[in-house]
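Narrative progress, year one. The postdoctoral researcher (J.K.) led the effort to move from monomer predictions toward full complexes, under supervision of the PI. The following entry was the first complex the group processed end to end, covering 622 residues in total.
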Amino acid sequence: MCVELLGSTPAILGINFGQSYASIAVLDKEGHPTCIANEDGERQIACAIAYAGEEVYIGNGAKPHLVKNGKNTIMGFRNLLGHTYDQVDHTAIFTAPLIPESETPAYTVDILIPPPKIASAPGLRSAAASGTATPNPAALEPVPSTKTLTVPEVTTLFLSTLFASAIDFLGTKPTACVISAPTWFTHEQTDALKAAATAAGINVLQVLDEAAAVLVGYRVGLSEELEKRDKKVVVLDMGETSLGVSVIACSEGEYTVLGKGRDDKLGGREFDNLLLKHFAKEFTKKTKVPLDLPCAEGAPEADKRAEAKLRLAVEHTKRSLSASAGAATCAVESLKDGMDLSTSINRLRFDSLASSVYRQVGSRLTDIITSSGLSLLQIDEVLLAGSSTLFPGLQSHLSLLVQPTTPVTSTIDPSEVIAIGCALQALHLSTLDSALNLDEVLVLGKNEVLTLAKPIGICLPQLHTSNGDGNGAEMVKIIDIGAPLPSRRRVVIPTSGKGKYGVEIWEGEDEIKVTKIEKTETTKEKIEEDGEDEEDDDEEDEEIKTVITLRKTLLGSVEV
Amino acid sequence: MASIITLPITLSPIPEGWSKPTPPSTPKLTPAIPRVVYPAGPSFVASARRQLLQRSFAEDDE
Ligand SMILES: Nc1ncnc2c1ncn2[C@@H]1O[C@H](COP(=O)(O)OP(=O)(O)OP(=O)(O)O)[C@@H](O)[C@H]1O
Ligand SMILES: [Mg+2]
């Protein structure tokens, strides 16, 4: 693999291609992955294309067209990749509808074809004109027409603008790219995405699972610090339309999927709906103009238009809400019947509106961990991705749900981490050992791998131990479940005294140990300071739950 | 290169009366479970390298 160098930094590209927003990352001059803005200064680039007369708007500039020109505004196309018309939902409320004639999902939009340019070269003019100096005015008007684009074509067009932004930033064409796809994409969908990106002139090394991109972005298990090398990590991604939870065993930097799940009703859209409802009520109260949002299917046109306007506006409100605790404004001119909306909401109020959504996210998280065969207590870290996880209220709800020692991490901006992970992955794949072939390497990722079913660890010699019958004692875990086999661990065991040493190798099992501790006066006081909502368990003793590993089966022993 | 971890235990000389336990002749390791391992990150690349170039861990360290 040959990589073009920018100074010493390879010109590589990571693309996070979401259903609603995309972002791109490259390596900066120091070689650090960084998410870049496009020409319009946007880091979150709306996956939207609007045809308006002779103009085509791509990105955030396309979204306002939803209000008056919705049928020529194409959105929500990513998830349709690799599907046929019959396999997908055709209800488009505001956006360009899919046309039933095409098996590959496609849109037909209205366009204006610019009039043929009047040749300015004198030579040409004299050849064309036969003395009649009066130009036909109709010929100078743009001609109304239509254009049909399939979902793969739309995707290619959209990705080519991202590619152009990267070229613009780097000053050279990225030579290698990794692009993300949802965890639940099928092989057909992944292939369709790769083909569409290739058609945009992008050299796609890999279409990478979004959760994997997050793990690579954070370099889980690889940092030089005292991080645990074997840990169980959850990637929680809440975007616009869905929530994805992946439960991963990280084994010295290898990422084994222990389980995953998705809720395709739980996304940022839920927050939009809550705000819509809240602001519409407030609008009606102030103006006496009836407005019930979100609209039901057969709602009047005026209400649908109001909804489209308000949806655009709450996008900004949400961003202010996650950025600061103060009042976040929402203003829409002529929302309905010529009446304006100008209002605000603060974070406290929003968090109470949104608390049911927060709770749903938490319970999906718990369910998916449980169905992966684990307990919430066993999770070492939760990594956040997807821009809807930017709400501090959601983050603190999740922090309260997991163990106090389990971080809920957003140190890499959740709206950027997938693109950053893709850029790093492009770097890893483009700097392979020269003896390796990329395709052969990636093929290895296609099949399942044998992984450890139960943890393996060490026990110190104890007198009651004999012949594998020593259940109940604790062991020191050395390799955890999910480790791809073969695995190697190298450990140092400090010694004391002189003589012969022995160790036993056991297979074990995680168990949850509950320790009750009586509350002392000081901890009681502390809880009272901390918050009122904990008042009712004030009287009870605290229970501390910890995960321990008990030995179950003797595997071997050594004496030195 | 794999890291070396210092375990949070201290090994004392073998207590008197301990004899090296012998595990059952057929190893009773619970059968391994096939799972998806993401083809992502430097450790995956290292594992692919060991497989494709047929290197052991030790050979790959060099
Ligand atoms: N700063 C912010 N605070 C809160 N919400 C935000 C912020 N920025 C964007 N959002 C919301 O996050 C959602 C987009 O997130 P993201 O870009 O992760 O989604 P996606 O990957 O395109 O969609 P999906 O994962 O559902 O297919 C939108 O609902 C958007 O309104
Ligand atoms: Mg997403």
